[in-house]
Design brief:
The protein has about 90 residues and is mainly α. It has a single domain, classed as Orthogonal Bundle (Arc Repressor Mutant, subunit A), CATH 1.10.10. Helix content is about 45%, strand content about 0%. The protein has helices at about 15-25, 40-50, 55-65, 65-75. The longest helix has 12 residues, at about 40-50. This is Homeodomain-like domain-containing protein. It comes from Paracoccus homiensis.
Length: about 90
Amino acid sequence: MNNNSSNLEWVTLAENTAHQWATGLINIRGERHPSSKLSNEDVDVIRRRLAEGSTQVELAREYGVSGSLIWNISHRKKRSHYTGPL
């Protein structure tokens, strides 16, 4: 509330960005990312269907994403912050 220069902390852009992520002021991970094609629910369904025997190729076609994205989801390389089922 006090933006007087004596009350401000001077930091670099990198330090300011790190602070924003650390304090939760910015969070564009997962489905919040502007270029995200899948919701967290989609990721849950994909993991469940992979466990049930669906192939990565058929899921990639169905969801309109690359096979490598499906592989990353199956190996928890994507949405690792999400702790939902499977």
